[in-house]
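Structure (tokenized):
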């Protein structure tokens, strides 16, 4: 059985997740916003199989290269944002100069597609493309856990006023990709507390 650990990182308090297998030997990192010391201490001694990115906004990628170099692990992202890692104007770090220096990383090693199944830590991570907050936003579903990025929050949704955002796309993705999941699925968002699909279907004021 997988376990996960949450780290709220950086000026925007972005949730990074470390997912660990039952034997506590292998791990996956999701959205490392900074190269946080506590996060890396959790990873030390584990085989880090991958860094999975829900999207490439700067507050989700700031720790990518430090972790990739330290643990020798590949990075996965949707192909629609393959240029965002290498371009500070696309990932937003130039726009938010008051909270971050310009951020760039090396390109990702792998590009994910909607419906793709990835195997890490002995479990299947299913890719769900949920554009709207950004063109290449994805969620990763493993068992009853959904690492949702900035698509769906507790009683809220991701903003769509940034470059590449689209409200209609986001609402459609939430209704067609996320609300069709079992209501018991735990939603682990890019910011703020967790929730469930059932709670959001019944109580989210933005998308019902």
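Design, position by position:
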């Amino acid at each position: 059985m997988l376990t996960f650990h949450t780290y709220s990182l950086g000026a925007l308090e972005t949730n990074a997740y470390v997912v660990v297998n039952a034997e506590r030997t292998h791990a996956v990192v999701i959205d490392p916003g900074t190269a946080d010391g506590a996060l890396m201490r959790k990873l030390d001694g584990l085989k880090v199989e991958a860094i999975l990115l829900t999207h490439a906004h700067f507050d989700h990628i700031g720790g990518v290269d430090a972790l990739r170099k330290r643990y020798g692990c590949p990075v996965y992202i949707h192909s629609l944002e393959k240029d965002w890692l290498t371009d500070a104007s696309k990932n937003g770090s130039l726009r938010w100069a008051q909270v971050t220096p310009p951020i760039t990383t090396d390109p990702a090693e792998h590009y994910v597609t909607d419906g793709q199944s990835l195997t890490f830590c002995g479990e299947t991570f299913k890719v769900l493309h949920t554009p709207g907050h950004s063109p290449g936003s994805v969620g990763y579903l493993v068992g009853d856990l959904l690492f949702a990025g900035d698509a769906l929050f507790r009683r809220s949704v991701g903003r769509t006023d940034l470059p590449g955002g689209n409200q209609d796309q986001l609402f459609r993705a939430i209704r067609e990709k996320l609300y069709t999941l079992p209501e018991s699925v735990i939603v682990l968002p890019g910011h703020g507390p967790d929730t469930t699909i059932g709670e959001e279907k019944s109580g989210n004021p933005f998308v019902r």
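Reviewer-requested clarification: The chain has a mean pLDDT of 97. The first helix runs from residue 37 to 43.
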